[in-house]
Amino acid sequence: MLHFLDVFSGYGKTEILKDVTFSVDPGAFVGIIGPNGSGKSTLLRTATKILEPFAGEVYLRKDKLKEISLKELSRIAAVVPQDMLFMFPFKVLDVVLMGRIPYINRLGFESKEDLRIAFESLERVDAIGLKDRFIDELSGGERQRVVIAKALAQKPKILFLDEPTTHLDISHQVEIFSLLKKLNKETGLTVVTILHDLNLASLYCDELILLSEGRIKKQGTPNDVLDYKTIEEVYKTRVIVKENPITSCPHIFLVKLQP
Amino acid sequence: MTKIKPLNYIAALFLCVVLLSVLGVLLGQVKIPLEKIFDEKYLEIIKLRFYRVILAIAVGSGLSVAGVILQSVLRNPLSEPYVLGVSSGAGLGAVIGLIFLSGMISVSLLAFAGGVLTIILVYNLARTGNKLSTENMIISGVVVNALFSSLLMFLISSSGNAKSHSVIWWLLGNLQIFNFTQLVTVVCVICAGILVAIVFAKELNALSLGEEEALHLGVNIERIKKILLLISALITSVAVSVCGIIGFVGLMVPHLTRRIIGPDHRILIIGSAVTGAAFLLLCDIVSRTVMVPQGLPVGVITAFVGVPFFVCILRKTRKAYFQ
């Protein structure tokens, strides 16, 4: 689905990602983890054509990313940012319909089909009841569901998310990730998400990519990646890793630093 | 927030424009009774007032659409042609023409050149590499605006008394127009500008979600920003070139219209155009009927009429608008 081959990337002249190679299979649920400044967002921006790699090649499905036009890309990949800032108070349905922009022609208003897809997307995220509300009246969790619905309206094959639950409380964190997992399982949507919370990553992701200083430190299943030695080395803090008694996923416990 | 259907609103405002146009032809220093509208002796007055009404419609809708474009492209609620220095750039060009040259054609051309050169200057000041940051754009706009405003003041204060009076009068905004060709040029440029804005309405919607979000929706933002900034500069400078600096319209009308019919640019642009046309027509009628015989510059009226109106709407729809 997505394939990075010896990719170097960054901003202006500053190189952040160094020699990154990985593959994401269709239908996978992949988490990108790593400390602040390790290159997670740079990786996401390179994968979505916001940044052009300095060297190396990114492939999306069978094609080179650089040969895919922005418009084509917007029909294959959708992005959910950490927190979408709405400058104007759009209605929820209007926001979701903006996900149809890649499909509607110039001057055109949305067709019945576009409207149907928007409703369907709202239903998928369980937010159909919000359709006539104004986006600025919603709570953080509701708003993030709407933004995901907008992304789904793009009918993507792959969904990128940049820490989608950073501003949410634990119940909404679980709600959003369960929703993503359901979409992933039911529709085969490939999900690539940046995560700060290692335990959420462990619970929901099939596969993790751990970045450290712009390089891939380790990749594999949560069990492979989340061992205490690796975590301590990359994050430079003490942790204890134990098995979650219910899910048997690895669970990371923080250790208080001695003053 | 609103119960008015956008299409009803646009239809109502369109009707207002028609009614105000009729009033605009009939009212003024000399009031023309409706039954004598075809009277031979009023023909010349009616012709000039008709030009004036058409100009008010064109300039009012043009400045409003320029404001809509800038607020969305630069993602800043304070954006309008004046803040970005386009108005003062065009004004500076026109004043240079008024003082050193003569003839409306050279004044118009210089105003036009001033406005377009200003947006190019501001754009290049704000640009780093190939990317344009909107924050930089606003800051360079404010700086360029300050520079041009003081240059304007300098030119006015160093020119003779008689000249400076006419320059100041012109700068305050005036919709008087005598030349048919000039009127046609203004109307054509503004119509073309509004049409281009409508064509890019979908992209403006995407841009109001943010630049990266617009990219993710397949919108080539750098190219579209360039086109739209140029369009708003064209509209503004062609308006300034004939009627001086008319403030407040470009800022107020988009906000007002957005509050009533919502932020979807596919209807907002048309809604703002009719609102701006009706508003400037109204202001022009007021400017011609108070303080007879000399009248008032319309630029003085726009804020006088606009602010109470705007405050009213603001209080009725009290709501955090821009987060």
Task: Explain what you see.
The complex is a heterodimer of chains A (259) and B (323). Chain A is α/β, with parallel strands linked by helices and 259 residues long. Chain A is 33% helix and 27% strand. Chain A contains nine helices and twelve strands. Chain A has helices at 40-47, 70-76, 92-98, 112-124, 140-153, 170-187, 198-204, 222-225, 228-235, and strands at 2-11, 14-24, 29-33, 55-60, 63-64, 77-80, 158-162, 190-194, 207-212, 215-220, 239-243, 250-254. A six-stranded mixed beta sheet of chain A has the order 6-7-8-3-9-10, sandwiched between helices. In chain A, helix 3 packs parallel to helix 5. In chain B, helix 3 (86-100) packs antiparallel against helix 4 (104-126), helix 3 packs parallel to helix 5 (134-158) and helix 4 packs antiparallel against helix 5. Chain B has one domain (6-316): ABC transporter involved in vitamin B12 uptake, BtuC (Orthogonal Bundle). Chain B has 323 residues and is mainly α. Helices cover 74% and strands 1% of the residues of chain B. Chain B has helices spanning 6-26, 43-73, 86-100, 104-126, 134-158, 161-171, 180-199, 201-207, 211-216, 221-243, 249-261, 265-289, 298-316, and strands at 127-128, 131-132. The model of chain B has no long low-confidence stretch (mean pLDDT 84). The two termini of chain B are 17 Å apart. Chain B contains 13 helices and two strands. Chain B is globular and about 65 Å long. In chain B, strands 1-2 form a two-stranded antiparallel ribbon. The chains are: A alpha/beta (259), B mainly alpha (323). Chains A and B meet through helix 2, strand 6 and helix 3 of A and helix 8 and helix 9 of B.
Structural topology:
The complex is a heterodimer of chains A (259) and B (323).
Chain A: E1 2-11, E2 14-24, E3 29-33, H1 40-47, E4 55-60, E5 63-64, H2 70-76, E6 77-80, H3 92-98, H4 112-124, H5 140-153, E7 158-162, H6 170-187, E8 190-194, H7 198-204, E9 207-212, E10 215-220, H8 222-225, H9 228-235, E11 239-243, E12 250-254
Parallel strand pairs in A: 3-8, 3-9, 6-7, 7-8
Antiparallel strand pairs in A: 1-2, 1-4, 4-5, 9-10, 11-12
Helix pairs in contact in A: 3-5, 4-5
Chain B: H1 6-26, H2 43-73, H3 86-100, H4 104-126, E1 127-128, E2 131-132, H5 134-158, H6 161-171, H7 180-199, H8 201-207, H9 211-216, H10 221-243, H11 249-261, H12 265-289, H13 298-316
